[in-house]
Amino acid sequence: NTVSREPTEKGTDELLGVMDKVTIINSTLGKALGGAAGGYTTGPKPLIDLLRQRSRPYLFSNSLPPAVVGCASKALDLLMESNAIAQSMAAKTQRFRSKMTAAGFTISGKDHPICPVMLGDARLAAVMAEDMLNRGIYVIGFSYPVVPKGKARIRVQISAVHSDEDIDRCVEAFTEVGRKHGALP
């Protein structure tokens, strides 16, 4: 019997239902944990000991600044204490994705807070991202060689600190900028 319970946003392993089968986890301390730097590997002690001796990226990298470690540790504590942040992020992400889709944009992926607004044209992605910045909204245009040719996009990162008003303002700006540059009718 499978016990149905609400996801706790513990990543891909939970999403795929294989948490009990995974012994090694590699992850970053990047976007989901406040945009810090670095990453980590968890697993059996003998493996971690081996990686500390043989892993070239580990051997030739610097230690993380204490502030980064402290912030990442606190972020993980907050996420482990309650589902509130994860549920809020899911709702904010859904709000942005559904409003952008309703406005006529194509958003790649599913249910993830990194929301690629697919535009196809590199120049269009660049000028729209610049116009968004001029409106006080920081988004990044990506084009070849970072993404495949013809798959240019603007990446939007939904954050726990964004309000519904922030998200709505972003969608309104995208709609105005999209119309201005011919990305929307």
Please tell me about this protein's structure.
This protein has 7 helices and 6 strands, in the order αββααααββαββα. The termini are far apart. The protein has 185 residues and is α+β, with helices and mostly antiparallel strands. The strands form 2 sheets. The protein has a 4-stranded antiparallel sheet with strand order 3-4-6-5, covered by helices on one side. It has a two-stranded antiparallel sheet with strand order 1-2.
List keywords for this structure.
single chain; 185 residues; four-stranded antiparallel β-sheet; globular; disordered N terminus; PyrdxlP-dep_Trfase_major
How far is the N terminus from the C terminus?
50 Å
Low-confidence stretches: 1-5
Order of helices and strands: HEEHHHHEEHEEH
**Main beta sheet strand tally, sense and closure:** 4 strands, antiparallel
How many strands?
Answer: 6
GO molecular function, one term: pyridoxal phosphate binding
Family: Belongs to the class-II pyridoxal-phosphate-dependent aminotransferase family.
GO cellular component, one term: mitochondrion
Pfam families: Aminotran_1_2
TL;DR of this structure?
This protein has 185 residues and is of the alpha+beta class.
Any chance you could write out the topology, listing elements then pairs?
Blueprint: H1 12-15, E1 25-28, E2 39-42, H2 45-54, H3 56-59, H4 66-81, H5 84-103, E3 106-107, E4 114-120, H6 122-134, E5 140-142, E6 152-157, H7 164-180
Antiparallel strand pairs: 1-2, 3-4, 4-6, 5-6
Helix pairs in contact: 5-7
